[in-house]
Every structure is written in structure tokens, then in C-alpha cells.
Specification:
homodimer, about 500 residues, Neurolysin, domain 3, 3-stranded mixed sheet, 20 helices, globular
């Protein structure tokens, strides 16, 4: 077989794997938005079978043979080099996973997500405990199967953040934590607090939806190629070219949740919509890592969406959307309320500073679960103890504690650290964008987000998986990932607000 | 391999085919409800690949070998006999279909449905014409591939109505037509007409949805195991155990459309929900034929839902749902309006008598398309000419003529006749149910539908594919399918209304 044919056969085979995954993404989206409750059992069968088929197609001997053949002669084409390199990575991981394990994980987590949703609603950890136990067991089997050098946690991490290691993340998180603790303490000591009543007034859900959708469209999410629906645990799912699904949840007395949640998911969506569709289904047309993905959501949610210039444009529009509700609120009061720093229970509602403490807690607990130092049934106690130690608070119940997140029920151990990586990358990218593009704040004040979006499309989105996350960061910003841009950004933001 | 193992291997293999189909059903449902417009191209890729995979799994040599082995020793178990017989039928059809043709049809019709929806909206047949041409060509290839004795149309029919033939349907339709024409003429000659303003008042869509959902639940559709959404061309899709999706469309000034549409789809849904879930994925747990499926929708929509006893219960509730809108309307006026017989353009809005003329027209045009006597580009002219001949009307445009139905864009040639078969079976089953159960009208007046639903569950739903449609009819009613129960029912209904 000639080189050209071999490459095309490899791409065809791999695209089919991604096509099955895109079908799974849609089926999963439906599970979290519109599926009737009694459909859960059958849904688990569907998800399990799709996962099994995808794994079969990915690990077909032909894929291995084609990879070997293509690797023997170095490609001259950059796209081909990237695709062969990244398909090799995915293939190597997959062939180590027994097909039965893949299917069992998929079927288990499909069911477990429904069990978790019920358990969270009823604040009933014991009903979820056996499922968590099963999932941890399966994930340990997965780590053993794929192999690792230092920690079984590395094996999980590598799926979401290729090339990242527990040791490296531990180091950067420790540096971040060392700077965060005094910052959060100084804020608390300042005695200043925003008015809390501003974002907790009566905000009709349908109007929140309208406003959120308009804001997402304004920053650049294309609703002809996507949707916004409601769910229990918000997510963004890129189904494929022209089809990206945002989800959110609304609280009629908490504007924060829906509004910033939508900007966050829209950031993910803009990344998905910015991928190079001519390479759909291949690494060159796929997102770089979950950390980079999260950098895009954080950038729009926080760096842009919680900034004063953004609200100089949007506050009058928000006031018009809820007539009589926020009429007397000044931009200063609103910005302060939207940037309230306060230790709290729920990760997704946490401010930009304390948020990372929530992640560090999960990162540590997950490692303990994977090493066997922590039994799944002991999670609530361990959670509450660590929470008290790190955030000086004790969760009133498990729904606001260890049951708050969907991730473990999805089998997503190793996923959480990518959130703080996302915060770090977001700050570092935004610092660079401001250097490259000049007066971005002027754009935002005028409701213009196209220059920033265009820069992100060029620098971050269209490269796909050409570079791993760390290298992408170096190429875009000229520096390795560092906690400094995030700390600098937070100090600059909170300095004037809290007079510190 | 022993017999027991062979049977279980066959069932496992076949269930996987059905699992892929159930995934395709969900993906198709999404296409018609929530998919963003720009997702159409990728959706076609997903549907094409699912169809290809399903075809591969179904035609795997192992399935043929297992069938052969099982057929050599006659099974003692009835379920096994049914499953082997029906899997053989599906298998034989599938192995004759080239894999490329299967995939091409799936991909073509996924795209064509979007083209059709646009063409219908814009009344633009020429934009749809090349797609119809392609579909007819593909369906002729399909007929040639699967083979037939008398007419290529038989080959298509057999997919939807196993065992039925063009000749047989032509005969029963001719008998029906012979009795329908004088009935419709007598109604027209009576000079009597219901008040037309009753069902065309202002009916807020959200309240139509509320009422329709409540009515569907009242007749027995389980909303914990199903949903109701809006779409362009209403359908019901049974995804699998615990998950059945109804769709409808609403018009703010036409109560008929949403209301009876929902009862219709709920009838399909009650059938899907009544299948034996222990046999899901096998013929014993599948619906018997599309004609039988349609009998269940027609039975609830028309035989029950347009009857006076039903409205004695529901009219006061409808009046409460739309306060001030129908307050002065009597039950007699309402029933007459809901049973207005009048020649009209749109099949799905046609009354129970003229409806069948719409089907006969399509049945004849489809045969002409399949035999090559009619070119796809000539469809509008042929449609309008035949329409004028049969219904004395000329459609004002193609949107109200040959573009009105989704079926051809779905590749569903051969599907339409099952609608009139459904009307015929519905009348024959209902006649029997009334004999078996006594005072059903008393039940309906009291808002009780459980006895009828239970009877249908027992007699029609739970048998699955144990019997082909014709045999099921003989077993349930003691008679072969006949046009007489439908004609008797129509005469009995329209006699008092029109004084004929």
C-alpha cells in the first residue's frame, strides 16, 4: 500500500470512531436534557454499545498496522504528522483497555448519572455510594490497564490533559495556592462586602434565558449552529460541524447561576465552533485538551464577562430586560456584586479566587480514591473535613458537599484539575491578547467582541491538536504555563474593589 | 454449537442491530425537533454511518449460519419460532441490499428531509425535484436488489407491511372507494354543514399543549416514559423501553391540528409502550406492521377521540382551558365541527372519509414512479390532475399539494397505503372491542379509557410479531381484513350528523 492510501485509510477509520463518539455525545446530551426518566435503563444500553463499538473500531488491527506503516516514513505534511502522532496516542491507550471494561464503564456511568441526580436531589449519599465504589474500582482497573509511571492518577489525567502529570499539576497548584491564601485573607480582612441583594432579586427564568441567549450570541456563539437548553449540571457538547449544544440551569432568585453559566458554556461553544471543520473527526480538527477547553470558557465567563467594560455595555440591557428590578443599581455596585469573593459550598458558584480551592480539594480526594487511601463510602467525612480545613466551612449536607458535581458519576476522575488549569491558561492567554490587540476594553464597552474572538480562533481554536496544551501556551504567549498571570489578574481586579 | 447457544447468539446479534436502530431513532427525532439548521450535513453523516453499521451487523455471515442451524431443527418454543421466522425475513431482505446502497439511501434521505422542509416552506418544488429523483432511483435499485414477483412496488410494501401485496391492497382499496364515493356524495348533497368558526378561534399554543398532554395522559400514554415536542411533520418514535417520543405541531387558530394530532401520536405511543419489554430488540417485542401501528393511532384519534362520549367528558375541560372561547358551544355543535366532511388539500387535516382518497392518490402515484411511468419532475402536474379527478379540487400550490408530506424525502415510498390499512384495521378492531367489552361509551363518558387500553395491550400490543397483520386481524376479530367495518362505522357516525 502506498503512503497516500495508508494515510487516507487511517483517517477514514479514525473518523468513524469520532462519528460514533459524536453520536454518543448527542445521545448523552439528550439524556441530560429531554430523556424521560423511565428511559434511563435503555439509555445505558445504548451508551454502552456505542462505547463498545467505538473501542472496537479504534482498536481494529488495521489501525495499528496503518500507524506502523506511516510511522516508518516520516511525513512531510504537518497535518499528517499531527494526525498520526495523536491517533497513535489515542490508539495506544485504547488497545490497552479491554473491550469489556470499556463497555462496562460506559454502561455503569450512564446509569450512575441518573442515580447521582436522584441522590443529589434527595441529599442521599448512601444510595450513590455503591455506584461510586463501582466506578472507582473500574477506574483503577482502567489505570492498571493503560499503565503509569508514578501514580495511577497519571493514567486518568492523561486522557483529559495529554502529557500532564500529577507531579507537575501538584507543583503549579501549590504555587497558586501559596499566593491565593493571602489574597483571599486580605479580601476578608478588608471588611468590604458588596450588596448581596442585587443578584438575588426576582429574575423571571424566561427572561434570564432571553438575556443569556442574546449575550452568548453577542460574544460570538452562532445559534444557527447550536442551541441552549436547561439541565441539572450544565455542560457544552460539540456534536459536530454546525451542531454544538450549550446547557445551563436557572434559579429565579440567583442571576449569577444562569447568566455566568451561559457565558461559560458559550466560551466552550465558541471553541467548538472555531475548530477547523475541514479536519473534523481527526486530531487536527479537535480541541487540544480539556484544560485549553476550559481556558476558553473561563476567558469569556470571567476575564471578559465579569469585567467592568462588558457591563458598561450590558448593564443597561439587563436593566431593560428586568424592568423595575435593577433600575437604581450603579455599574460599580453591579460589578462589585458580580465579583464578590466569599468562601462558599458550591464549586460552580464560587468566585474566581476561592474556586481553585474547590479544585485542589477534589484533586487531592481523587488521588486518595485512586491510591486506595480513601474508601468511596468515607467520601462525605473526608470531604467535609478537608473542606473545613481549606475553606473554614462545613457543608450542611452532602448535596452541598460531595454530591454537588456530576463528574464522578460520569467516571470523570482526573477531570477536575483541568478546571484550574483552564483558569491559569485563560489568564495567560488574555494577558497576551491584550498585548497583541491593544484596547480590548474599548471593544467590550462598545459591545464588540469580534477582534478577541478572531484572535482566539487563530491562535487557539484552529490549531486543533497541532500542539499539546503546554506547547500551545508557549507558542501563543512565549512562556510556559505559570500561576503568575492569574494572580496578577486577580490582584488587579480585586485591588480596587476591596481596597487592598 | 447446541441449539440453545445458537438461539442466544442469534438474539444477541439481532438485538445489537435493533440497538443501533434505536440510536438512529433518537438521532432522527432530534433532527426533527431540536437540531440547529447548520447541523444538517453532519447529521446526514451520522445517520448514514448508523445505517451502514446496522446493515453490516444484520448481514454478518454468523447471523445467516445461526438462522440456518436453528431452522434445521424446528423450535418447540413459540417465541423462538416467531423470532427465527421474522429475523429470517429481515435478514433475507438485508443481505440482498448492497451495503453501499443502504448507506447512500440513509445519507441521502437525511439531507433530503431538510431540503424538503425548506422547499415546503418556500413552496419551491424545483429545489426538491433532484432529490426526489435521486430517491426514486435509489428505491428502484432497492426493489431490484430485494426482488419481487409482480410489481417493484411489492418490494417496498413488504418492508412496512410484511406479506402484503400491491394486488391485494389495490383490491381492498377499490372496494373501499366504491362505497366511499356515494357516502361522500350523499354528505355533500345533504346541504348540511357544521359551524366552521368553532375550531378556528384563537387557541393559545401553550394551552393547546397543556390540554393535549393531559388528554394523551388520560387515554393512557405514560409521560414518565415519553415526551411530547413540536415539529414540522408530526411523528411518534419509540426509542426503546421507557422512552417513546410524540411530536405534534400547533396552529393558534386551528384546534384540530394539534389536538387530534396528539391523540393520533399518543395512539402510536400507547402501542410502543404496550410492547413486551422483556422481548425488546427481538421480533416478539416489536410492532406487527405499520398498518397495525396506524390502526392504533386511528383508533384513539378517530374511533375514540372524535366520538361524542369522549367529548361529553372532555368538552367542559376544553372550555375551562380556553376561558371565554368556547363557552356557548354545545356538545352537538362541537361534535359536528370535529366531524366535518369536506374535500380539502391536506391529508393530515382531512376528515375520516375523504382521507382515504388522499391515500389512494399517493398509492397510485408511487406505483407510477416506481414503474417509471411518471418522472419525478412531473409529479406536481400529475398530482394536481389526479387530485382534481378524485377530489374535485386543484391545489393552489405545491406546498399544499405534492410537497405536503415528508414521506418521499424520507425514502418512505410504499408507506402511504399503511395509513388506509390502519383505518380499516382500526374500525375492525374497535367493532370487536365493543363486542368484547360491552358499554365502552359509558367508560369514555366517565373519562375512563383503561379497559379499552387493556384490551388493546392484550390483543394487539403484547403479541408483537407473533402473527403477521392479516393473521392478527383474523385472530382478534375472527374475520379477514374487510372494508365493511370502516364503512359501517362511517355511516353510523355521519348518518345522524348529515341526516343521510
Amino acid at each position: 500500500m502506498d503512503h497516500h492510501t495508508a494515510y487516507h485509510d487511517l483517517i477514514d477509520g479514525f473518523k468513524n470512531v469520532r462519528l460514533l463518539e459524536s453520536i454518543g455525545a448527542l445521545v448523552g446530551w439528550d439524556q441530560h436534557t429531554y430523556m424521560p426518566v423511565k428511559g434511563a435503563g435503555h439509555r445505558a444500553e445504548q451508551m454502552g454499545y456505542l462505547a463498545k463499538l467505538g473501542h472496537e473500531k479504534l482498536t481494529a488491527p488495521a489501525i495499528g498496522q496503518l500507524l506502523g506503516e506511516l510511522e516508518r516514513a516520516a511525513a512531510t505534511d504537518e497535518i499528517e504528522r499531527v494526525n498520526v502522532r495523536e491517533i497513535r496516542r489515542v490508539y495506544n491507550r485504547a488497545v490497552k483497555m479491554p473491550s469489556k471494561l470499556v463497555e462496562e464503564i460506559a454502561r455503569t456511568v450512564s446509569q450512575a448519572q441518573n442515580i447521582w441526580a436522584e441522590a443529589r436531589k434527595k441529599n442521599d449519599f448512601p444510595s450513590f455510594a455503591p455506584w461510586l465504589d463501582k466506578i472507582v474500582t473500574l477506574k483503577r482497573e482502567e489505570a492498571t490497564a493503560v499503565g503509569y509511571k508514578d501514580s495511577p492518577y497519571d493514567a486518568l489525567l492523561d486522557e483529559y490533559e495529554p502529557g500532564a502529570t500529577t507531579a507537575e499539576i501538584t507543583r503549579v497548584f501549590a504555587e497558586l495556592r501559596a499566593d491565593l491564601i493571602p489574597l483571599v485573607a486580605a479580601i476578608a480582612a478588608s471588611g468590604k462586602k458588596p450588596r448581596k441583594d442585587i443578584l438575588t432579586r426576582e429574575f423571571a427564568v424566561d427572561r434570564q434565558h432571553m438575556f443569556g441567549q442574546a449575550a452568548a450570541a453577542a460574544i460570538g456563539f452562532d445559534f444557527q449552529a447550536g442551541r441552549l437548553d436547561t439541565t441539572v449540571h450544565p455542560f457544552c457538547s460539540g456534536i459536530g460541524p454546525g451542531d454544538c449544544r450549550l446547557t445551563t440551569r436557572y434559579h429565579p432568585r440567583e442571576l449569577n447561576q444562569g447568566l455566568f453559566g451561559i457565558l461559560h458554556e458559550a466560551g466552550h461553544g465558541i471553541y467548538e465552533q472555531g475548530l477547523d471543520t475541514t479536519h473534523f473527526g481527526t486530531p487536527a480538527g479537535s480541541f487540544a485538551s480539556l484544560g485549553i477547553h476550559e481556558s476558553q470558557s473561563r476567558l469569556w465567563e470571567n476575564q471578559v464577562g465579569r469585567g467592568r467594560p462588558f457591563w458598561e455595555h450590558f448593564l443597561p440591557r439587563l436593566q431593560q430586560t428586568f424592568p423595575g428590578t435593577l433600575d437604581e443599581i450603579t455599574i460599580d455596585e453591579f460589578i462589585f456584586a458580580a465579583n464578590n469573593v466569599e468562601k462558599s459550598f458550591i464549586r460552580v458558584e464560587a468566585d474566581e479566587a476561592t474556586y481553585n480551592m474547590h479544585i485542589i480539594l477534589r484533586f487531592e480526594l481523587e488521588q486518595a480514591l485512586m491510591c486506595g487511601d480513601l474508601k468511596p463510602s468515607d467520601v462525605p467525612g473526608a470531604w467535609n473535613e478537608k473542606f473545613h480545613h481549606m475553606l473554614d466551612l462545613t457543608p450542611p449536607n452532602d448535596a452541598q458537599g460531595c454530591l454537588q458535581d456530576i463528574h464522578w458519576s460520569m467516571g470523570g476522575l482526573g477531570y477536575f484539575p483541568t478546571y484550574t488549569l483552564g483558569n491559569l491558561y485563560a489568564a495567560q492567554f488574555m494577558q497576551q491578547a491584550r498585548q497583541d490587540l491593544g484596547d480590548l476594553d474599548g471593544d467590550f464597552r462598545a459591545g464588540q467582541f469580534g477582534r478577541l474572538k478572531g484572535w482566539l480562533n487563530d491562535k487557539i481554536h484552529r490549531p486543533g491538536q497541532r500542539y499539546r496544551a503546554g506547547e500551545l501556551c508557549r507558542r501563543v504567549t512565549g512562556q510556559a504555563l505559570s500561576h503568575k498571570p492569574l494572580i496578577a489578574y486577580l490582584r488587579q481586579k480585586y485591588g480596587p474593589l476591596y481596597g487592598i
